[in-house]
Amino acid sequence: MARKETAADAANAGRLKQIALTYKMTRKADKKIGLVLAAVGIGTLGVFLAIGFLIGHPVYLGIFGLLIALLATAIVFGRRAERAAFGQMEGQPGAAAAVLDNIGRGWTTTPAVAMNRSQDVVHRAVGKAGIVLVAEGNPNRVKSLLAAEKKKMNRIVADVPVHDLIVGNGEGQVELKKLRTTMLKLPRVLTGPQVTATNDRLRALGDLMSNMPLPKGPMPKGMKLPKGGPRGR
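Structure (tokenized):
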């Protein structure tokens, strides 16, 4: 019993430490985060207390309002922390791969399936929407990478729809913070077994990450591909 309590205490301490760290990181990009959270919490609790006094049940409404205030504060904190994280990641090579890694269940992502010496890169995700190729880099250069990769997909899995997205803030591009939402809105046309079969067929292709010592997630800006390395697939 003592061991279970110790493990639970350690887990709680770890969560509190993670929340504190997230708050500190968010505050660097969002200076008003503290005031906003306080306003949401106090405002929500105040509304329920006022209603409680009006109907003659301030204690019950106060307790209920406290729970709702904590929930509202947590939701606002999560959204602003996510926005701050995207703001810090935006523009960094490999940022799209980091988003794809956290897209959720039902998707299999493979970073850096195609790349050139200018660090323009294409990532691949497979789910019930089919194959989604996500490119980041110079819009003019990544189009050739996408075209080559789509041609390869059509040869190997011609019966699976292939979508292509370019991450950026220009016309026809998808903002980094909207990448996950955009992919989840794609129509689902494959069944679970079809997704598995598609992944099995694509796994034989390999990817640049398995053949090159590249770090996962955002890649250092000064990093160069070795001479003679692949320019794209």
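The two ends are 56 Å apart (CA to CA). Residues 58-89 form the longest helix (32 residues).
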